Amino acid sequence: MGRMRENPRYNVISMRVSDEERDHLDTLMKTTHKSISDIMREAMEYFSAHYEQEELNSKAA
């Protein structure tokens, strides 16, 4: 039986990338020692934080 996780992830999202994008992801994986899933999760967090900040800035203007 597999190990129990505190926060299991059941949803799978797939996407198509170019050869160049895949090479870039491979480089990131090697330099950060992280999985593609971890890199993509961090990218989503980064995008969300910056998107929310841009929304706040545009409403303040």
Structure report:
The protein has 61 residues and is mainly alpha-helical. The protein has two helices and no strands. The longest helix has 25 residues.
Summarize the structure.
The protein has helices at residues 19-32, 36-60. It is mainly α and 61 residues long.
Secondary structure tally, helices:
2
Q: What is the number of beta strands?
A: 0
Strand content: under 5%
Instruction: Report the end-to-end length measured between terminal Cα atoms.
Output: 55 Å
pLDDT < 50 stretches: none
Can you write the helix and strand succession as a string?
Answer: HH
Helix content: 55-70%
> Biggest β-sheet, characterized?
none
Shape: extended
Specify the structural class.
mainly alpha
Average pLDDT taken over every residue: 89
What does the radius of gyration come to?
Answer: 16 Å
Blueprint of the fold:
Layout: H1 19-32, H2 36-60
Keywords, separated by commas or semicolons:
61 residues, extended, mainly alpha, 2 helices, 64% helix
